[in-house]
C-alpha cells in the first residue's frame, strides 16, 4: 500500500507541470496560433520563479514571478508572429533557444541554493486515511490549481460566448474578422494565457517538485506538453488523461531503474519521449472520431486595411 501510494503521489507531481503547460498551449492553439516556444517559456519561468521565491521567501511571489516571466516571453512571440506576421514555427523555435540562454543568465546566481518547497494540504484525520488521504487531500496547491484550471478552460471554451469566439478565430479567422471580431487581439490574449501557464509550469519545478534550480531542469517537458495537445485532440478532458499517462511513464521508468531491471538506464530514461513519438504516430494513422486541429492553426493572418 505504501509503495502504491508513493508511486501515485509521484505521478501526480510529475504530471502537474505537463498539465499546466499543455492547458495554456491548448487555448493558444484553439485561437489558431502555434507556439513552439513552450519549452523556452517554461525554463525562464523556472529561473524567475525560483529567484523570486529565494529573494522573498514566498512561494506565492515565486509563482507570480514565473507567471510574469512566461507572459513577457509570450508577448515577445506575439509581437513577432502576430504583429509582424513572421512564420510561427520559426518564431517558436527561436523563442525556445532564446529562453534557454536567458534562463541560464538569470539563474546563474541561484545554482546551488535551496528553498523550502511549497507546503502540502493537511486536513486532520482525513489526510491520514490510508492510500486515498494523501492522494486526494495531501497535495500541494499547484496540483489542485492545475485541475481547477483545466475545468475552467473547458467551461470557457464550450460554455461561454467568448470561448466560442476564440474557437472561431482558430477555425476560420477570415469569417471571424468579417463578423467584426478583433482576431489579432484575441489571439494575443490567448498567447499571453499560454505563456502564463507555461511560466507557472516552469516555476512549479523548483518551487514544489525539486526545491532548487539547475539549468535545463525542464528537460523537454515543454515539447511533451506540445505533443499532449495533439494527443488530446485539442480537448481539455482528454488533456488530463494524457498528462497523467505521460507522467506515469516518467515515474514508472524511474521505479524500474530502482528495482534493478536489466534494461539499460539510457533506454529507460528515453521512454517518456519514445511514448510521445509512438502516440503521435498512432494518432496520425487513425484520425477517426474525436476533434481535429483548428483549421487555421499556424496560418498567418493579416487583416484588411
From TrEMBL:
Matching Pfam families: BPD_transp_2
The keyword Ribonucleoprotein is assigned to this record: no
Superkingdom field: Bacteria
Compartment annotation: Cell membrane
Principal location: membrane
InterPro entries (UniProt xref): ABC_transp_permease
Any GO CC annotation of this UniProt entry: plasma membrane
Transmembrane stretches, start-end: 37-56, 63-86, 92-112, 142-158, 188-206, 212-232, 239-256, 262-283
One term of GO molecular function: transmembrane transporter activity
Record's keyword terms, sorted: Cell membrane, Membrane, Transmembrane, Transmembrane helix
Recorded topology in the membrane: Multi-pass membrane protein
Keyword Cell membrane: yes
Entries under PANTHER family matching the protein: ABC TRANSPORTER PERMEASE PROTEIN, SUGAR ABC TRANSPORTER INTEGRAL MEMBRANE PROTEIN-RELATED
Record-given protein name: ABC transporter permease
Amino acid at each position: 500500500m505504501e509503495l502504491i501510494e508513493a508511486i501515485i503521489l509521484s505521478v501526480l507531481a510529475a504530471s502537474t507541470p505537463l498539465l499546466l503547460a499543455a492547458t495554456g498551449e491548448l487555448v493558444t492553439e484553439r485561437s489558431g496560433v502555434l507556439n513552439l516556444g513552450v519549452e523556452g517559456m517554461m525554463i525562464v519561468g523556472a529561473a524567475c520563479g525560483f529567484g523570486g521565491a529565494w529573494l522573498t521567501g514566498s512561494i506565492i511571489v515565486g509563482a507570480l514571478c514565473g507567471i510574469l516571466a512566461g507572459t513577457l516571453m509570450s508577448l515577445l512571440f506575439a509581437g513577432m508572429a502576430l504583429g509582424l506576421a513572421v512564420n510561427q514555427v520559426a518564431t517558436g523555435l527561436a523563442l525556445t533557444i532564446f529562453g534557454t540562454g536567458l534562463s541560464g543568465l538569470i539563474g546563474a546566481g541561484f545554482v546551488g541554493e535551496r528553498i523550502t518547497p511549497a507546503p502540502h494540504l493537511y486536513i486532520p484525520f482525513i489526510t491520514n486515511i490510508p492510500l486515498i488521504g494523501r492522494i486526494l487531500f495531501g497535495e500541494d496547491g499547484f496540483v489542485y490549481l492545475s485541475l481547477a484550471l483545466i475545468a475552467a478552460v473547458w467551461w470557457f471554451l464550450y460554455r461561454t460566448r467568448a470561448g466560442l469566439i476564440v474557437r472561431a478565430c482558430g477555425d476560420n479567422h477570415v469569417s471571424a474578422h468579417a463578423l467584426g471580431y478583433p482576431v489579432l487581439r484575441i489571439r494575443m490574449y490567448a498567447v499571453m494565457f499560454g505563456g502564463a501557464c507555461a511560466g507557472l509550469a516552469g516555476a512549479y519545478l523548483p518551487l514544489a517538485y525539486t526545491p532548487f534550480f539547475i539549468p535545463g531542469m525542464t528537460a523537454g517537458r515543454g515539447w511533451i506538453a506540445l505533443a499532449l495537445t495533439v494527443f488530446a485532440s485539442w480537448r481539455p478532458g482528454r488533456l488530463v488523461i494524457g498528462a497523467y499517462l505521460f507522467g506515469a511513464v516518467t515515474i514508472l521508468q524511474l521505479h524500474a531503474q530502482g528495482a534493478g531491471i536489466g534494461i539499460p538506464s539510457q533506454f529507460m530514461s528515453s521512454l517518456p519521449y519514445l511514448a510521445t513519438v509512438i502516440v503521435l504516430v498512432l494518432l496520425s494513422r487513425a484520425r477517426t472520431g474525436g476533434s481535429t486541429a483548428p483549421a487555421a492553426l499556424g496560418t498567418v493572418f493579416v487583416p484588411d486595411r
